[in-house]
Amino acid sequence: MRIIENLKVVFALCAGLMALLYAINNLLNLEEAYAYVAFTFGQTGHEAYPSGIVPPITSPVLNWIGLSVIILTELAAGALALWGGYGMFRTRGDRDAFTAAKGRALLGAGLGVLVWFGYFHVIASAGMQLWQTEAAPPVLGGAFQYAVFCFLTVIFLAQKED
């Protein structure tokens, strides 16, 4: 049981650190992050499917709102998963306290799934048709990896420690 608890702590801390590092890197490269969001929202380079369900969004205000939502969700994911992981570490062996801390880590990893699956794959790729642009492979490939890691963390954390 202690091995499983320790592994869950490590996974929670990794998910939290990953989300926090991406949020900080987005903040350190804010102009570049904004350019990617504006590119995606504006639906530039859509030759394969020029018309879509979601119309192009060119408003700088809406682009900044979109980027802010991404970064704030990454920060929340990181903070919750790290807080949960730390709480899990401190309460190993105390089932009720460990489970309570695990809830925070689950929420953090779940927010990671929301960012990298929900925002990037559902909204940007499917809704705004990012998949057809030259920018898609590195953006969506990375987002897929991060979403899968967070989703696997959610699945692992959700299991009982018995």
Description of the structure:
This protein has 162 residues and is mainly alpha-helical. It has one domain. The chain is 78% helix and 0% strand. It has 5 helices and no strands. It has helices at residues 2-28, 30-42, 60-90, 95-127, 136-158. The longest helix has 33 residues, at 95-127. The protein starts with a helix and ends with a helix. The model has no long low-confidence stretch (mean pLDDT 95).
Summarize the structure.
With 162 residues, this protein is mostly helical.
Overall average residue pLDDT: 95
The SS-based structural class is mainly alpha
How many β strands by DSSP?
0
What is the radius of gyration?
Answer: 18 Å
Poorly predicted spans: none
Largest sheet report: none
* Integer tally of domains: 1
Give the topology string: H per helix, E per strand.
Answer: HHHHH
Q: Helical residue percent?
A: over 70%
What is the end-to-end distance? 6 Å
- The backbone outline, from C-alpha atoms, is elongated
Q: Count helical runs.
A: 5
Beta-strand share of residues: under 5%
List keywords for this structure.
0% strand; 162 residues
Secondary-structure blueprint of this entry?
Elements: H1 2-28, H2 30-42, H3 60-90, H4 95-127, H5 136-158
